[in-house]
């Protein structure tokens, strides 16, 4: 295997920012780690609260600045940064991450389409700690935004807003309400409502909504009654609210995957600790084959999620026109993986996972309940599969290549390349991919590149395994393409959603392949060896062919990385297998 790598692989700045936040918040397994220790989190959970001091700590570090683009005085330059710091918070408290995620959804339309005055007002408020909320949902209409009953009618030189939005995150505590309202017979607009500028009698908040998870999160509603707004409250062009909402969701759908990856990191860590401490039948339970199997597969699922989500987070500033498809793939696939990982670790913990005390102070049951929101926010699993299904007929006959595809993929998948800074512009986001998907449509070329590199540089046995795996994956892709063409007019049936699901699985496989191809030289070590790639592809194939087995001979390398991440209290990540760059996610001394 070729071990000649640069003296040091320098990760993009996003990883260093995330490492700084991780060190600042401390080890959640440490009872003395303050408001973000699992002990403090569970104690507050019992009171339906966020731990005292948690929000202050996040603000003191400067997290709100990562909701504001750098051009407006904040620190947000790429979605990769926000994704990774959100992952860091989520492995401790999904509730706190959701609070800021709700704010992100609300302020993004202002960054993308707002005028200078709107951007300046919101940026100044968020940087001071003000919260925002996105008022779209209504009790009787859910995701049917065309049925919205909220209205903003012209009166004089302004608008009069009436309607109720529910349920809405941050509705009570939020200062800004980005409100979706009817402004014509079939026209909808997004309005920037600043509660501080409204007469008190014109608005009210609804009682808090009791939820299974996210206890302590401000989930309530807001009602407007003859609320007078200036004409300047309209964000962008009047009547464009529906398109703006659909485009905005592409960003937050991608960011939500960070909730899942953070949760996976937390529960896998809890499962490993329990497996090491628990003794049955005279030895540690990790030696029980089924326990080992659950933990190894959960760790693989986390690595797969990392491969799928990070490139799409980078796409906001590299290929924003592709997010209509890729964000829905991520929003479907990663939370589903997260649910499966949580359930699997629940099997490892058995009765201990059901308790609200004991292992890690009983935080597992909170993580389990909180993570359930990931598949619901920003379009449910089925909504996102439907988004993918609607584009499939246009993707099986790709347009002529431009010649830039290889460089685009390198920009997306190379962890050592820094994406361009975000200059928000809603025009760059598209409602469809217009038939292009550089990840899914270039399988043959990518497979050839993988096999060529594996034959020369991979660990012994990897190339042979990959050859067989890629042949099988190629056959699956051909079968899927034939099915899409045979039912080109069907994009809404259960069968169509099944095809969309298979497309997402293939996307995940290719994402793992591209992650190896574009980082192996820089990272070296077991990462470059490629055993993990074989295992990830086999793990993904188990979704289609459950009798697929993992290559036992490659598991020790994976387990070494898994236990290294646990012992050194680093994130579970492919970085644990890299010769270069590993210390960046190490706990501060």
TrEMBL record:
Keywords: FAD, Flavoprotein, Oxidoreductase. Gene3D superfamilies: Acyl-CoA dehydrogenase/oxidase, N-terminal domain (1.10.540.10), Butyryl-CoA Dehydrogenase, subunit A, domain 2 (2.40.110.10), Butyryl-CoA Dehydrogenase, subunit A, domain 3 (1.20.140.10). Residues 239-390 form the Acyl-CoA dehydrogenase/oxidase C-terminal domain. It comes from the Bacteria. CDD domains: ACAD. Transmembrane segments: none annotated. Its cofactor is FAD. Residues 133-226 form the Acyl-CoA oxidase/dehydrogenase middle domain. It holds the Pfam family Acyl-CoA_dh_1. Residues 42-129 form the Acyl-CoA dehydrogenase/oxidase N-terminal domain. Belongs to the acyl-CoA dehydrogenase family. This is Acyl-CoA dehydrogenase family protein.
């Amino acid at each position: 295997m070729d071990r000649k790598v640069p003296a040091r692989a320098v990760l993009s700045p996003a990883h260093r920012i995330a490492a700084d936040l991780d060190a600042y918040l401390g080890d959640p397994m440490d009872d003395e780690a303050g408001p973000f220790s699992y002990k403090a989190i569970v104690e507050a959970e019992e009171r339906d609260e966020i731990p005292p001091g948690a929000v202050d700590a996040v603000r003191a570090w400067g997290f709100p600045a990562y909701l504001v683009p750098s051009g407006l005085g904040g620190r947000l330059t790429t979605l990769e940064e926000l994704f990774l710091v959100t992952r860091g918070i989520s492995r401790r408290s999904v509730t706190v991450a959701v609070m800021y995620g709700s704010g992100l959804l609300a302020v993004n339309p202002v960054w993308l389409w707002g005028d200078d005055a709107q951007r300046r007002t919101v940026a100044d408020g968020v940087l001071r700690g003000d919260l925002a909320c996105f008022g779209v949902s209504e009790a009787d209409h859910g995701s049917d935004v065309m049925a919205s009953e909220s209205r903003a009618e012209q009166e004089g030189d302004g608008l009069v807003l009436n309607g109720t939005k529910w349920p809405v995150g941050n509705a009570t505590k939020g200062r800004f309400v980005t409100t979706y309202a009817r402004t014509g017979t079939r026209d909808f607009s997004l309005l920037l409502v600043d509660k501080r500028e409204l007469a008190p009698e014109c608005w009210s908040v609804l009682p808090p909504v009791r939820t299974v998870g996210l206890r302590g999160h401000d989930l309530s509603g807001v009602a407007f009654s003859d609320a007078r707004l200036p004409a300047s409250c309209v964000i962008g062009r009047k009547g464009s609210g529906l398109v703006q909402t659909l485009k905005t969701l592409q960003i937050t759908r991608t960011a939500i995957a960070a909730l899942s990856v953070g949760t996976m990191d937390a529960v896998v860590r809890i499962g490993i600790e329990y497996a090491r401490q628990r003794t049955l039948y005279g030895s540690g339970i990790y030696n029980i084959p089924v326990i080992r199997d659950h933990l190894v597969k959960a760790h693989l699922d986390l690595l797969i999620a990392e491969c799928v989500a990070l490139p799409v987070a980078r796409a906001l500033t590299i290929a924003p026109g592709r997010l209509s498809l890729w964000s829905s793939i991520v929003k479907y696939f990663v939370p589903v993986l997260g649910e499966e990982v949580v359930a699997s670790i629940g099997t490892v913990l058995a009765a201990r996972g059901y308790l609200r005390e004991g292992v890690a102070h009983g935080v597992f049951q909170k993580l389990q309940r909180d993570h359930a929101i990931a598949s619901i926010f920003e379009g449910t699993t089925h909504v996102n599969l439907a988004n993918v299904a609607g584009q499939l007929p246009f993707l099986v006959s790709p347009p002529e290549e431009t010649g830039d595809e290889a460089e685009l993929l390198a920009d997306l998948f190379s962890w050592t390349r820094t994406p361009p800074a975000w200059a928000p512009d809603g025009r760059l986001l598209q409602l469809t991919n217009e038939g292009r998907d550089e990840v899914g449509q270039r399988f043959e070329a990518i497979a050839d590149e993988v096999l060529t590199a594996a034959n020369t540089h991979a660990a012994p046995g990897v190339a042979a395994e990959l050859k067989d795996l890629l042949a099988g994956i190629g056959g699956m892709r051909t079968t899927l393409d034939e099915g899409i063409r045979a039912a080109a007019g069907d994009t809404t049936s259960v069968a169509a959603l099944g095809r969309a699901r298979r497309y997402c699985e293939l996307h995940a496989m290719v994402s793992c392949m591209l992650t190896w191809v574009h980082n192996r030289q820089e990272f070296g070590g077991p990462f470059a060896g490629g055993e993990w790639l074989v295992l990830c592809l086999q793990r993904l194939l188990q979704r289609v062919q459950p009798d697929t087995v993992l290559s036992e001979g490659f598991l020790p390398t994976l387990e070494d990385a898994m236990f290294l991440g646990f012992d050194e209290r680093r994130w579970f990540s492919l970085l644990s297998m890299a010769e270069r760059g590993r210390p960046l996610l190490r706990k501060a001394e």
